[in-house]
Amino acid sequence: MTENRIAVVIEDDADIRQLLATVLEQAGFETVLTGNGADGVSAVREHNPIVTTLDVSMPGIDGFETAKQIRAFSSTYLIMLTARAEEIDTLQGLEAGADDYVTKPFRPRELRARIEAMLRRPRAGGEPAGAADAARPSGPDSGPATATTAGPGDWREHRGLRLSSAERRVRLDDSDIELTRTEFNLLEALLSSGRRVRSKTELAGLLRTEDSAFYVSEADRRAIEVHLANLRRKLGDFPAAPRWIETVRGVGYRLTAHEEG
User: OmpR/PhoB-type domain: from which residue to which, for each copy (predicted)?
Assistant: First the structure.
């Protein structure tokens, strides 16, 4: 299934809603505008957008709950917008499933740059990730790849955890693991790096853009910590005794050593 260039805006302030529509339409999106969380969830389900912007403070269900409901069935890029600047709110938004978190008042050019940076890592073939990935046939491919190297079918493997960049798919013990796009991209970067340590700044930059000059803030680095924690939770990996992802204190992250024998 191909994906239309659609963006859903979930925002209760009419002026901001129209500003977001203008920014997104200038970036080439067809926009669907909604004013509350319930309508926004319905719009995402109906239109399968590439990008969804989501206000935090809304009547009815707030942005955090809306994000959780959307994440239950969609892998749309979720960008939360809010007047709240406290770190705890940022972390709560990311834990609810957001890919990015922008505080109001925001600069339209910055928002557009963040969206375009995310889209530089499109899904292979434009097929939906997440829940739709689980609908793909789950039979074995032509064989496991050598650990942390690309093999038949573009699969990479480390200690039984396997990832295909071409299919945007992660498998563990013959089961598909459902990840957000950001979690997938982080795992892909770590599998590609092997035992080389990747700093939080590097990982944040990879998610933003291929341009190394892109500014990475402390909030971006904290976001990497949250995304890595969510990724580990889904994999059943534990920082105290990691099977796949090892924290190098004060530096960043890398793969664990290969199993002996």
Answer: 153-257
